[in-house]
Amino acid sequence: MYLNKVSASTGALWFRRGITLFFKSPLVFLALNLAYLLITMATALIPVVHVFASFLILPFFSVLFMTASRAACSGQPVSLHLLGAIFQSNGRRAPLYPLAMLGLCNFAVNVLVLITSALLDGGKLMQIALLGQSPEMALSDGALSARVSAALLFVMASYMPLTILFWFAPALSIWHRTPAPKALFFSWMAFWRNWSAFIVLLILWTGTTALILLTLTVASGHGTAHPALLGRVVLYFLISGSDVLVFAVYELCGEF
């Protein structure tokens, strides 16, 4: 398994490639994202199980996005048959337990982050996230709200390295039969060897997001748009687009 070492400017190439792939089949990517949201919403009424299910199915949907992106890249139509044959490698049915293992690892690591954040707010954020408790009480108390905010900042800061750790792992597990620990290792090493390109990609994506949100804010200020509705629509597009960026990086980062 070989990882290319690319220059910082490759981050801009990843960005352009991801945008191009997204607009080749936008409805497919939006539909996949909607399916994931509907499944997670279906379990939202069950505390803890909701969070567990979200992390467990995430690797499976990650591979779905990667497969749809690969089809769009080669000019193939993305069909249900194509997505149904996703969990196959070299004509054989690929075992699903590596993806399930990645989902369990993702859940465990995120719970560990929440437990660590309890040192800052006494576990209030963890109760809100895992048990579905209302955040209104925590936010109404000024001192408690400050501690919860500090815990939330810690969780958000931890999210980026966790995202990097699990970014390529699902595709490596299902397409190349790579064990979960090894897939996590190579996912991290892909970033480590090309961190400057990833920083450029992050700056471009963050800047684009900020520009779009600023435009929406100005438009809503002039009464030409409904800010809440447009904000949700744009956020939905941005999330779907970010999923396609994963394949753009995977495609150009190395010969996995």
From TrEMBL:
Keywords: Membrane, Transmembrane, Transmembrane helix. It comes from the Bacteria. InterPro entries: BPSS1780-like. The keyword Protein transport does not apply. Signal peptide: none annotated. The chain crosses the membrane at residues 21-39, 45-66, 96-120, 150-175, 195-221, 233-253. This is Putative transmembrane protein. The lineage of its organism: Bacteria, Pseudomonadati, Pseudomonadota, Betaproteobacteria, Burkholderiales.
